[in-house]
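Chapter summary example.
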Amino acid sequence: MVRSINYWIAERAGRRFYYGWMVAAVVLVSNLSVFSFNPTFGLFVTPLEQEFGWQRSVIARSITMGTVLGAVLAPGLGVLVDRIGTRLLMTGFGLVGAVSFVLLSQVQQVWQFNGLVALLYASLFVGVGQMMGSVNVSRWFVRRRGRAMGTVMMGASLGAVVFIPLCTVLIGTVGWRATYAALGGVAVLLVCLPAYLLLVDRPEQLGLAQHEELQSLTAAGATRPGAAPAGVEASWGLRQAARTRAFWMLLGGFVLGAAAVQGYFVHAVPHMEAQGFSRAMASAVWSAFFFTGVAAKFLWGFVIERIGVRRALVALFAAESLGILLLLTARSPAALFLYAVINGLGHGPYLQLQAMVWAEYFGSHSIGRIYGVVQPAIVVSGSLGPWLGGYLFDLYGSYTRFFELGIVLCLLAMVVFFLAPPPRRQPLTGRKEALA
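The structure predicted for these 436 residues follows.
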């Protein structure tokens, strides 16, 4: 009965409504919850420090543990995504995250906090957010993949816009424990229910395999070097993709950039507080950053379709380095808000590009396996950022050295992506080879 809801909606939509947009809506709503975890994590640092006396590096290592756990799970999860789809996986992982939030409200020991945050991060942020939602959109969109991915990733910024001020108010009124419990209920409403009721794993299940949206599109009918012929999306298997130079260049670029981006996300609010700004001011600036990102993600979707993912990645990491510099040097509220707007615009396509590039270079047929294999290195690198930021703060009493390192890493990532064109030759397209 519940399962038939998907087909009931699709049958009545007819040609006027492509069900891929319903899938995108499910992912967008899910992203409101799962991607709000990172930007709101810093709001809990000071209350935890005050109540328990834990060092910031001890608190931040929870993210490191979570990304390591996510890295361990990712390869197997990628295989499951390709074999059984994401509907039940998103529902189950959403429940794990919801229960972890509720249990966080009861912690008394640092090992309990570290373990639960690690489980929550691996299940929601890595599992649902970085893998399952992105795989869904990649499978349902080819021609308009840029704007579709930009639309769903608006949920990441919208979630931060909503949950940063909400968590700030709740922590100040009912405390951090009740706030964590409330976030567990949010995960059920925004992740579990929409995924279980509405998600469809593949267009083929609705008889849409030949829909025009799933045919590759080339500018002015011309095929770019290394792209699939018009009307045919590239279909690389995991082994085939891993033999290309482009695969390893892309992976190296994201490994470099992830540590910087994930690190300043966790420590941006504590950094502003360490500079003498009030919590209300820091939260307002952080909210402005994500509010700007809402429009940026949507607009970047169209830009990416025009300039391609490679050039967009170069522009992205140039903007990230500038953003970190502005945050590091800001000494007034006006300078902070300038940082929020400029870096919010530049950071906009980070999540969608990280998700899009693998499908754009290697096709979506084995995207679960490919994404599952590359995620361990990316998330482990990203996990080092929060830990390293906390460690350097404890060591030097400021985030200056960490932000300087972040600027260098982003510039290096920019160069790597500049030097990483798509593969020039098409792989064999047989099913056996594509699944390898």
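To summarize the output: Residues 110-140 form the longest helix (31 residues).
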